[in-house]
Write a structure and sequence with these properties.
With 220 residues, the protein is of the alpha/beta class. It is built from nine helices and seven strands. It has helices at 9-19, 24-34, 39-42, 46-58, 73-81, 96-107, 121-132, 149-159, 185-198; strands at residues 63-67, 87-92, 114-118, 137-142, 160-169, 203-208, 214-219. The longest helix has 14 residues, at 185-198. The two termini are 29 Å apart. The mean pLDDT is 96.
């Protein structure tokens, strides 16, 4: 079986140079985020956000739900991929992040497609199930507190339509999933959800070894 190529920093730079479609708005938001404490560690990689936008377009999504806004970089990229009448609902526990993100959403002329909701993700997902109904979303992107992933996944699976997509970020969690001594709630939750997903007949599954691990689960 062919082995995956090892991507050196130089090779990663090459890949970005021939595939990453950047602009001033995205660059400015990345720069502002990088100045924040833990900003670079928490920021979605530019190529990952571009991939998310491609998934939105490929699925023909009109309604996207994002769990975990941070400074709104992935939000911006996915909103750009929506049709003009599309809707992206982004959820975060803290209102300070959308406040940073909103000027960039406005600069990109997608603010009217984005609705930020502040509060516990599990509660808001329950509300969205009531508002949108089961099968009411086309794509759900989960990138929030890892201890909540199993619950968020189950609610997302009810929320997304058949043929729709659930995308989970950080599914190798900085490599901690391999560390048997790592028994913190976040690592345990990611590790256990990965094991569940392997045998979950409700979805088609792929885990991509990019960024910090990106898992795609397509609802059957």
């Amino acid at each position: 079986m062919a082995q995956q190529t090892e991507f050196s920093p130089a090779l990663l730079d090459y890949v970005r140079s021939v595939s990453l479609r950047d602009d001033e708005i995205l660059s400015d938001l990345r720069h502002e985020t990088a100045q924040l404490p833990m900003g670079q560690a928490m920021q979605v990689m530019a190529e990952e956000a571009q991939f998310l936008a491609l998934l939105v377009a490929l699925t023909g999504a009109r309604t996207v739900v994002e769990i975990g806004t941070f400074t709104g970089y992935s939000t911006l990229c996915m909103a750009r991929a929506l049709p003009a009448h599309g809707r992206l609902i982004t959820v975060d526990i803290s209102g300070k992040w959308p406040m940073i993100a909103e000027p960039y959403w406005k600069r990109a002329a997608v603010a009217e497609r984005i609705e930020a909701r502040i509060g516990p993700a599990a509660e808001i997902l329950t509300t969205l199930l009531s508002e949108l109904g089961p099968d009411g979303a086309d794509l759900v992107f989960i990138d929030a507190d890892k201890a909540g992933y199993p619950l968020y996944y189950e609610k997302a699976l009810r929320l997304v339509r058949p043929g729709g997509l659930i995308v989970l970020d950080n599914t190798v969690f900085f490599g901690r999933v391999l560390d048997e001594a790592a028994r913190d709630a976040d690592t345990v939750a990611v590790r256990e959800l990965n094991a569940v997903l392997l045998h979950d007949e409700r979805v088609d599954l792929a885990m991509l070894p990019m960024a910090d691990g990106l898992t795609l689960a397509r609802k059957r």
